Amino acid sequence: MPQLRVSEMYNSIQGEGTYMGTPTMFLRFAGCNMRCPGWPCDTPHAIEPSIWIKESEKFEIKGLVERIQDTTGVGVKNICWTGGEPFIQPMEELQRLYWALFEKGYSQEVFTNGSIDFPSWSWEMTKMMDWKLTGSGESGFNIPERERNASGLTSRDGVKFVVTGPDDFAEAKEVWLHLKSLCCDAQFWVGAAWGRVKEAELVEWILENGLPWKLNVQVHKYIWPADERRV
After folding, report:
1. What is the pLDDT of residues 26-48, one digit of tens each?
2. Spatial separation of the C-alpha atoms in residues 53 and 5, rounded to whole Å
3. Pick from 192, 197, 160, 152: which is nearest to 176 by CA?
4. Strand partners, 6
5. Which residue stretches of 4-126 are H helix?
6. Torsion sign over Cα 39, 189, 16, 154
7. Greatest CA separation found in the chain?
8. Closest to 212 (Cα-Cα) out of 189, 181, 185, 182
9. How far is Cα 70 from Cα 64, in angstroms, rounded to an integer?
10. Residues 113, 6: Cα–Cα separation, whole Å
11. Are 60 and 94 in contact (CB under 8 A)?
């Protein structure tokens, strides 16, 4: 039977997106279909196979749900699927996991690069889609899938741009206009590639352009060290 590869799971607060500030259990899946060579990935232990094959664990659904319940305890009722890229895992197993956690009363959100068509069963999951720009080195990857996914997002979902500088920001504005023409109804967020641009500059650019975007600041990186794994 296919199994899900998990790199880590831990309780913290959600540091970005629509659930920011909410006590959350992070379920980090191992492996990704992108490498983002334009900047160092902030979760290399979940992305680089030479690392995650040694450090990840394989779970069947029953055992994974039990581990999640043990980890969350009684105080955490939101689960963030993250990675890597969650949707490269065996899709039938992800579906079983989703419904098992749904029946336990958990809210569930997913952080995804949007390069794989979202499964129909995930429609109730809040989605934060990281739209890769040129600065990431992955801007041309699976564009049709990303556009289809973005066009189905609702006002409770988000599209996040991570920018390295003014060129990425200008590109993000063009992508935003294009996605709006495809009836994307998501909230839009913009954040800084870590160490490449200052949040204050992003605020200036948002205001100068009159954009209805939100600033995405990864709050957890200001609470704990940016490279700390909270296992």
Report:
1. 999 999 999 888 877 777 777 76
2. 9
3. 160
4. 29, 57
5. 44-47, 49-55, 61-72, 91-103
6. negative
7. 54
8. 189
9. 10
10. 18
11. no
How much is the pTM? 0.91
Report, as an integer, the average pLDDT of 56-68. Answer: 91
Cα–Cα dist 112/134, whole Å: 18
Residue 79 has φ and ψ, to the nearest 5°, of: -120, 130
Measured distance CA(172)–CA(192) in Å, rounded: 12
Instruction: Work out the mean pLDDT of the chain and round it to a whole number.
Output: 91
Distance CA 164, CA 4 (A): 33
Residue 89 exposed, middle or buried by CB count within 10 Å (0-12, 13-18, 19+): buried
Q: Compute CA distances 170 → 67, 79, 86, 163, 184, whole Å.
A: 44, 33, 29, 9, 19
Stated length of the chain = 231
pLDDT of 1 reads 65
Distance linking the first and last C-alpha atoms of the chain? 27
Tell me the pairing of strands 78-82 and 57-59.
unpaired
